[in-house]
Structures are given as structure tokens and as C-alpha cells.
Amino acid sequence: MLTAVKNQFKITLLSVKYALQREMLNKFTFFSNIIFMIINNGCFLIQWIILYSLRDGIGGYSFRQILLLWGLAAGTYGFSHFFFKNSYGLSSAINEGRLDNYLVQPKNVLLSLITSNVDVSAMGDILYGYIMIFIYGFEIKTFLLYTLFMVIGGIVLTSVAIIWGSLAFWFGKVDMVANTMNGLPTSFATYPDGIFKGFIKLLFYTIIPIGFASYMPIQIITDFNIYYFFVVISVTILFVILAFLIFYKGLKRYSSSNLMNVRV
Amino acid sequence: MKKYLYIYKTKLMTDLQYTFDLLLGFVGYIIHIFIFLNLWQYIYSNPKELINGYSMSQMIWYVIITEILWTCLSGRAFSKDVSNDVKSGNIAYNINKPYNYVEYALFNHLGGATIRFILLTIIGLTIGFVFLNGFPPLGILQILAVLLSSFLATIISIFLIMSLSLISFFIEDASPFYWIYSKFILVVGTIFPIEFFPEVIKPFIKFSPIYAVSYGPAKLFVDFNMTDFISIMISQVAYLIISFIICHLIYKKGVKKLNVNGG
Q1: pLDDT of residue A47 exceeding 60
Q2: Distance (Å, rounded) from C-alpha B190 to C-alpha B214?
Q3: What is residue A119's predicted lDDT score, i.e. its pLDDT?
Q4: pLDDT tier at A227 (50, 70, 90 boundaries)?
């Protein structure tokens, strides 16, 4: 069992490595994508500088905590889009019969599929997250917790993307719904939860799970809470199990398509 | 001109077939308005209070209008389409047709933007009316002035985004230029009026495209006055001419470098 997991992990890393090598063929485009993404994210600091000049402690967050929130939002998004880019195009892969390529491979279908491509600009998001951590105030504990929650948050976002994408097994063309739902966590994750009231907060801990990917991790990083820590870990495991269960349940209904395509 | 109007009409009719998809795509717009509604309600502890000359309801209306202008553009998809036309060599099929590619892309995209603008305006005005208990006081002529300014803003934006996307003639992936432009417009032009920025920066923003494509129409909607209208019109006409020339220059220069491989 352990060897199988180890082998699958190795295959996953190799898959990402080859996808990255493909992207690095054009070095200028590769590096400009990363650098411009960092500048792109940095533009939003202007928004917060202006907002904090109007009022202190927006939504219960200090300006430094906003930097942390932004860093974590960018980091989780970047981790998920860099390592698991294809989970965001799962519904079209199902509808276009592109799972055929992975079904004939003797490895985990879902992992092979979602790791077979990388989003280079997402590396810029990951780096931006670390830049924010350094501006926030570098400490070994903060750095390690941040890295852990970047990975965990990225896995939560990926699991949710797999769940929405897998609906294509039952309902066919769900691209628009999946894209919309996958965009929601990113829209909310860069704003402090304290500005929202009532019903919407419930959504942050259910169908838009940024409560577990961003808000609770921020509280843990700034003021460590063992209870929250285990809640985040447990919920992440639950999301992963749910994503695998739904995907493999749906896979039994998969019937390919007559669309001809060549995988290069 | 007739052929371009035909292209515009065709795109308009095609997009009308996918109204449901379009409406679903507007969830992002509604979410942004919802976020800013919450944010400004939090920042304005008293709704009657004025910050930099704007009341809470004016600030929310400002975001509603700038977001309509930005979302109806669907800039990311447009930029991707133009870049792909260049990178895939598809543009070669357009060169030998009896129209200019730049005008073709403008009118084609304007067709889709018209439908999105109408639907977003209905959604935006409804949200504003429900949450802010009414509209800003505007007469018929003032509404026409806002519409004219919005129309010019949209055309200028299309030319500017097309110019950035046509850089694909010279480098493989021009999308980072679009990211920066879009964030510049979103952060500096969509969220806050110029009055919220430090005095040193204000003149730069006033002479930047933001004044023409974002601030102008929204400012006229929330607080119309003749002086602003004239100043915004001058800026829009100037930017229309400048963006038109830049776009055609990049296209003309780029097309000479075009090298399409068969396949």
C-alpha cells in the first residue's frame, strides 16, 4: 500500500516536471508570465492602502493581516492551478472524451489527469504569497504554517473543482456552472470575512469553502489554535475523499465521445 | 461601413441565442457588487457621511457602473481571441477578405458587448435600486449623456485591449500585458473615483485612459455636471483617436512580420 502511494506520488511529480519542461521551452514567455503575475497581484495593494487610509481595522483585520490574507489567497490559488491545472477543465475533458488517454494508463486516473498540465503564471501567485509573508514579518513558525496552509488550501480548492467538474458525468455540459463556482472562492478570499454578515458566512464553510482554505488558517497563523488546526486538517481530508468518491462514481458512467483528438 | 454593421448584427444575433450562458457568467459581476456593498457599508459607519465628497450610495453606484463597463467588455476572452488569431495563423484568413481585421474585430466584439451591456445594466440597476432605495437624480438628457460616454468608453477599451493583444505579432504570449492593463483599470479605475487618490497622483490618472474608459461615465451617472461632461468628452475623443491610431499601427507593423506555416 505504502509503495503504491509512493509510486503514485513519484509519477505525479514526474508528470508535473515534464509539463513544466514543456512550458520552459520559451524562456522569455515563461519568466514574463511569472513576473507579470507578481506585479498583477501587487496592484491590489493600492486598493488596500487607500481603504486603510479611510478606516483602520477593516473587518477585524489589521493591514499586516490583509497582506497575509492576500498572500494566502494567491498561494492557495497558485498551488492548485500550478500542480492541478486540469482539475479546472475537468468537465470539458469528460464531455470531449479526453479521459480515454488516462484510462489506459496503469496509474491513478484522476491524479494522472489533473497533474498532466501546469499553469506557469500560477508560479507567480506562489512567489507572491511568499513575498507577502516576508513583508508581513518573517518567522520560521509563520513560514512553515503558511507553507502548510498554502498546500492544504490548494488541495481544498482542487477538491472542490473536481467535485464541480465531475458533475459532467451526470449532467453533461456543466462548464459554465463549474467555472462560476470555481471563481467564487478567489473573489471572496481576498476580502476579510468580518465585512460579511449572516447567510453568506455559512457558504464560506460549505460550498465556497474559503473558511477552511483562508480564514481559519489566517487565525491559526496569527494566533495558533490547536482546535482550528485539526478542524482544517480533518475537513481537507474529507474534501479529498469526497472528490475521489464523486469522480470514481461518475467515471463508471463515462462513455467517451466521438471527438477525434491527438495528444502531443 | 455596411459590411461592418452586418458583422455587428450577426454577432448580436448569435450571442442572443446564449442568453442563459451569459446570465450565468454574470454571477461574478453580482458577487463583486455584493462584496463592495458589504465593504462600503462597513467603511461608512454613517450612510449620510461624505468621504472625499461621495456618500455611501454614490460609492456603490460608482462601482455598479464601472463594473458594468468592465464586465460587458469581456476583455480577457477578447484579448485571448485576438492573440489566438495571431498565434494560430488564423489572421491570415482575414487578411485576404474584403475588410480590415481591426474593424472586423471591433464590430464583432461590439455585438457581444451590446447584449452584455443591456443585461448587466438591467441587473446592476435592479441591485442598486433594491439595496440603495432609488436611483441618482438624472434627467433624460443626462441619461443620454451617460450612455454616449459609456459607448465611447467601450470603443476606446476595445481598441486598447486589441492593441495589447496584437503585441502577439512580436512576442509569443501577450497576455501578461493584458493582466497589467486590466488590474490597472480595476484597481485604479473601477473601485475608487479619482478623488480618493493622493493629490500628486490625481493629474496622472486624469490624463490616463482610466479617466476616459472608467471614471468618466460613472462620475456622470453618480454626480452629473456640465463641466465634468465637457472635460470627459474631450478626454474620450482624444483617447478614441489615439487608441485607433495605435491599434492600426501595431496591426500594420505586425502583419508585415506574419509568417504562417502550413498544416
Answers
A1: yes
A2: 6
A3: 85
A4: very high
User: Whose CA is closest to B210, among B229, B191, B230?
Assistant: B191
How many structural domains is chain B composed of? 1
Contact assessment for residue B146 and residue B138, using Cβ atoms and an 8 Å cutoff: yes
Residue A261 included in any domain: no
Compare CB distances from B183 to A33, A40, A200 and report the shortest one's residue: A40
Cell triple for B134: 432609488
Q: Is residue B82 within 8 Å of residue B166, measured between CB atoms?
A: yes
Average pLDDT over residues A39-63: 88
**Which chain A residues in 79-138 lie under 8 Å from chain B, judged by CB atoms?**
121
Residue A259 in this model has a pLDDT that exceeds 80? no
Distance from CA of B194 to the nearest CA of A (A): 11
Residue A256 lies in a domain: no
**Which residues of chain A neighbour B179 with C-beta distances below 8 Å?**
36-37, 40
Which residues of chain B fall below pLDDT 70? 260-263
**Residue A160 structural domain:** 2-251
Residue numbers of the domain that contains B91: 2-256
In a domain, A90, yes or no: yes
Structure confidence at residue A64 (pLDDT): 92
Best mutation target, A22, A44, A195, A200, to test chain B (most B CBs within 10 A): A195
Tell me if B41 is assigned to some domain: yes
B259 secondary structure, DSSP code: -
Three-state DSSP state, A58: strand
Within-domain flag for A168: yes
Does a structural domain hold residue B243?
yes
Mean per-residue pLDDT, A186-190: 89
Which ranges in A115-260 belong to alpha helices (H)? 121-137, 140-166, 168-171, 175-189, 199-203, 210, 216-222, 226-251
Q: Give the residue numbers in B contacting A (CB under 8 Å), as ranges.
A: 21, 24-25, 27-28, 31-32, 34-35, 38-39, 42-43, 51, 171-173, 175-177, 179-180, 183-184, 186-188, 191-192, 196-197
Name every chain A residue with its beta carbon within 8 A of the beta carbon of B28.
180, 183, 187
CB-based contact, A191 to chain B, within 8 Å = yes
Mean of the per-residue pLDDT values for chain A? Answer: 88
Model confidence pLDDT, tens digit, residues B182-237: 888 888 888 899 999 989 999 999 999 999 999 999 999 999 999 999 999 999 99
Q: Which residue has the cell 458587448?
A: B113
Number of domains in chain A: 1
Nearest to A176 among B25, B43, B192 (CB): B25
CA distance B72 to A230: 43
A117-161 confidence digits (pLDDT tens) = 888 888 899 999 999 999 988 889 999 999 999 999 999 999 999
Q: Are A176 and B25 in contact (CB under 8 A)?
A: yes
Chain A residues with CB-CB distance to B34 below 8 A = 200
Chain A contacts of B210, Cβ < 8 Å?
none
* Chain A contact set for B175 (CB, 8 A): 33
